[in-house]
Amino acid sequence: MCIRDRYQRRVRASINGKDAMQTEDLTVTYSIKELACDFGVTSRTLRHYEDQGLLTPERQGQNRIYHAHDRVRLAWILRGKRVGFSLQEIGEMLDLYDLGDGRETQRSVTVDKCRERIRALEEQRDDINATIDELHDFCSLIANLVRCKKTGRWLRRDTGEPLSHYAPKK
Predict the structure, then answer these.
(1) Beta pairing partners, 30
(2) Are 46 and 32 in contact, with CB atoms under 8 Å apart?
(3) How far apart are CA 36 and CA 45, in angstroms?
(4) Dihedral sign from CA coordinates of 144, 145, 150, 151
(5) High-pLDDT (> 70) share of the chain, %
């Protein structure tokens, strides 16, 4: 439904002799419902981003009117959320857009923050991989135990040795 609506807008713009993409970028507006639908989020999510100062739609009475720049900001917000940035971090990066330096500061800060995030995720991945390895070892140890019928002690099936103490690898 949302894609069809956008397509119909472009067709109407083309019929009127205007370049559809240029027209959409400059004059097309979106209701909260349309923008939410286009991005697969709820209206409540958009209102929350507005409350946080990340989106600033135009108001006509009680209605929120979104423009192309709101779509761009929302795309940034959602991408930032997907890769694990907080709304505060996203807001800091978005605020750098209007510095008047051709977005160089925004680009540089965003690249640095992304590289920091990559390092943090790589550390988490290493920790997760170490935990998985430890769980595999532990499962193998437990699966390889049998109870001795005479003593009631647990023995290693492969060696016959009693299980005395489990020391995880470091």
Answers:
(1) 66
(2) yes
(3) 8
(4) positive
(5) 81
